Amino acid sequence: MAKYKAIPEGYMTVGQMAKKMGVTVRTLQYYDKEGLLCPSAESEGGRRLYTDKDLVTLHQILSLKSLGFSLDDIKQRLIPLETPEAVARVLTEQAESIREKIKQLNDSLTAIEQLKTEVLQMQSVSFKKYADIIVNLQMKNDSYYLIKRFDEDTLDHIRSRFDKESGLDFIDRFNRLSDALVQLQKDHIPPESEKCQEIVKAYWELITEFTKGDMSMLPKLMEAGKIHTVTNAWEERQKIVNEYLEPALQIYFSKLGADPFEGVKG
C-alpha cells in the first residue's frame, strides 16, 4: 500500500468515501478488517485513502449485500476490476442477481395477494389453514383452493400423510389425470370408452391412495370437490373434470360390481 504525506488528487479519505456512498466510516473500517475492501493507499499520518476504483468495488459489495448475500459469499464473488471485460462481467452477474431477486419479490407479492383474497373469503380465522395455504403457494400448487374447503380432520390427515416432496408428486399426478380428463371431454370421448376408463381407474387409485383406504373420508372429499360457482381457472377446470368424471366413475364401479360410495353418502 503506497503512503503519501498529503492526500493526492484522485484519492479520498475514509470519511469522504463514506459520505459519497452513504455508508458509515465504521462500515468501511469493518470491510477493511474483513478483507473485503482495503484502501488503495495510506497517508503518512495513517489516514486510509480510497480511489474511484475502490468506490466501484464498494458499490459492488453494497449491491450484493442488498440482494441478501452474506459477506463471505460476497468475498467469493468479488472480481478484480482490471479490464473492461472484468467490469462488464461483474455488472452482468449483478444484473442477473437483481433479476432473480425481482422474480422472488414478485412471487412473494403474488402469494401475499392470493393469501389476502383467500383469508377474506374464509368465514373464520384459522392460522392452520393460513399456514397450509402459504406452503402450497410456495409450492406453486394451484390446488390450494381446495384447502379452504377441507375441514380440520381432513387437513390433519393431509399434514400427516404428505411432506413437501410426496405432496408435490401427488399434486403432479392429480393434475396430469385431471388435464387428461379435460382433454377427453373436449375430444368428445364417451365416458364408457376404454381410454376414459383407464384414466378413471388411475384417478380412483389416486383417491384411495389419498384416503389410505378409509372410505369414511369420501363424503368430505365429495363435498370439498363440488364447484357451485366458478371464481378462478382451477375451479373452472375442476368443474369440467367433475361433470365428466361422475358418469365415468359410475360406469367403472358397475364393471367392478361394487360402489365404494354406497353406505357412505349423505
| Strand order in space, largest sheet | 1-3-4-2
Uncertain segments: none
The coarse overall form would be elongated
By DSSP, the count of extended strands is: 4
What is the H/E order?
EEHHEEHHHHHHHHH
Q: Please, how many helices?
A: 11
What is the gyration radius calculated from CA atoms?
Answer: 30 Å
Structural class: mainly alpha
Portion of residues within helices:
55-70%
Quote the beta fraction. Answer: under 5%
| Average pLDDT number | 80
> Termini separation (Å)?
85 Å
Question: What secondary-structure arrangement, pairings included, does this model have?
Answer:
Layout (H helix, E strand, L loop, with lengths): L1 E3 L7 E2 H8 L3 H9 L7 E3 L4 E3 L1 H15 L4 H7 L6 H38 L5 H12 L13 H10 L2 H23 L7 H18 L6 H8 L7 H24 L10
Parallel strand pairs: 1-3
Antiparallel strand pairs: 2-4, 3-4
Notes on the structure:
- Pfam families: MerR_1.
- This is MerR family transcriptional regulator.
- Residues 88-118 form a coiled coil.
- By secondary structure, the protein is mostly helical.
- 65% of the residues lie in helices and 4% in strands.
- It has eleven helices and four strands.
- It has helices at 14-21, 25-33, 52-66, 71-77, 84-121, 127-138, 152-161, 164-186, 194-211, 218-225, 233-256, and strands at residues 2-4, 12-13, 41-43, 48-50.
- A four-stranded mixed sheet has the order 1-3-4-2.
- Strand 3 (41-43) and strand 4 (48-50) form a beta hairpin.
- Helix 8 (164-186) runs antiparallel to helix 9, helix 8 packs across helix 11 and helix 9 (194-211) packs across helix 11 (233-256).
- The chain is elongated.
- The N and C termini lie far apart (85 Å).
- The model has no long low-confidence stretch (mean pLDDT 80).
